[in-house]
Amino acid sequence: MRKKLDTLNTLSAIPFFISSVSLWIIPFLDTDDGLPAAGIIAALLFWTGLLSGAVIQTGLFLKCRKLNFRRKTHRPRLPLALAGVSFVMLVLLVIFRSRTTFVVVGALFCTLVFLQAAVIIKRKECLK
Q1: HSE, side-chain direction, 13 A CA sphere, residue 73
Q2: Structural domain for 80, as ranges
Q3: Residue 81: pLDDT band by 50, 70, 90 thresholds?
Q4: Number of domains in the chain
Q5: Between vectors from CA 84 to CA 80 and to CA 85, what angle results, nearest 5°?
């Protein structure tokens, strides 16, 4: 049972990764004439990946709780700390109205990747 849940946990990284990578479409969009089709596709990829990864992780959380699996270590602190630093950078970039879209998207990308990694690592610790 643990092996199956661990595989499902690993597979949840795929929609999370697709969600994060879809953000890199934003700097290349030409939004002068409204939202182009690529923007809609990027939004669909982002939300579909984020929601499907969250649904998988929620299912794993409930299953682990039902089977009374508990984590033994506290490894996800580093990804959470990095996500916090990335989020603070993102907020500062937005406050100071950064003109560089790549920097803002990069900070958002790092925040999401580190948060998603923390969730996956935390679940992996429960399944050991």
Answers
A1: 10
A2: 2-126
A3: confident
A4: 1
A5: 120
